[in-house]
What does this fold into?
Amino acid sequence: MQKLFVFMIDALCASDIEQMKELNYFNEVISKGSYVASLEPVYPALTYCCHTSILTGKYIDGHGIINNEDQKRGCKQSKVWFGLKKDVKAPTLLDLAREHGLTTASICWPVSAGADYTYNWPMIVPYGYHGYDPLQYLDKGNATQNLLDKYYWKYGRFQKGNDCSLDLLTMAISPDLIRDFGQPDVMLVKMCDLDTMRHTYGVYSEEAKEQLRKHNEEFGVLLESIKRYGDYDNTNFVIMGDHGQTDIECVLNINTLLEKAGFIRKNDKGEIVDLDCFGHSTCLTCNIELKNPEDKEMEKKVRDYLESLKDDPDIQLDYVYDKKEMEEIYHAEGPYDFIIESKRDISFSDDTNCPDIFSYKIPGSHKCGAATHGSSPSRKETTLFIASGPSVKQGVVLPVRSMVDEATTMARMIGFEMNDTDGKVMEEILK
It folds into this structure.
């Protein structure tokens, strides 16, 4: 029986393919297989949206993970991120694999807590948590007990303290799982640090190139683990990214802009006392929420103002789409009323305490770093899908495909169909 092993590199860019061809373990897959030169992410190109589309084959209006943050109406920032698998409104590749009697494993994949997988260590510990009790987020069924019993006592330390590291955790658990439990039929492994390097230093920085070399070495460990303890010859290997990144010129403080235009009103202490709308950053794009979406007069006033920003030489909005247009163009939905994006490489901040409309980049920030993502699919840097194995042809390069095509293609690799999706099988690369 054929197996599937997926190595996800957060923020892998389409342009990385040339460096990857020069790295031995990555090239072991590239040279024997095929790849998509430009794999376009879904809108918005945020980690949690994309990871969920990759596994369901659906756009965000079909799976319900509309952002990294679990946004609700109320015109305020959300501090809660999606994490629970029950919030995903469509079956995943791993759900269907289990229905077909296959064993499944997911290590540090977003929005997977509580999933009915054979082995699961989810990405559920809150973003920015540096405490010493990550188990409070992993237990009660969020992670599978088999992995907690086997590994938390010695590897839980990688999720503790100021120097916690998901990648160290992932690379401790994953090879041990393959050795101790046997290679699962379907296994997902997610790496985070390339995304961090690009947020901190930029897309094409030497630090990002060095991190890709490190990911090559990590992938090599997992390849060797499968050669030693698994079924290498019958495994289909996939290396993929979730989105690209874009180097940022500057940061636009959207709520400061709306305040100066009169749509947000504060008291003498700088506290918001009333508003007509609020901006929610999705990094390279921004969602605008109306306080009262039934107020058509205010809806027109806000839209007219946003449309005027297309002619602003500093802001240069590319588009202003309402809810109907969002659905028709990007299959997008959510508790907001407009989406906007600049022609410039501007990142949006939804901070409500910035005195100036524009501010400097904050290296390392996922919203306002040296580089970021969250755009429409048409930005310069898309991502990659690379595959090799017994189900994959050798030497085919597809110029462009959509992220929603990945789940259906991977399902076909291991012998079943995913029919209720927005994607299509990449027949050209399969035997």
User: Anything to note?
Assistant: The first strand starts at residue 3 and ends at 9. The CA atoms of residues 14 and 383 lie 4 Å apart. The mean pLDDT is 97. DSSP finds 14 helices and 19 strands in the chain.
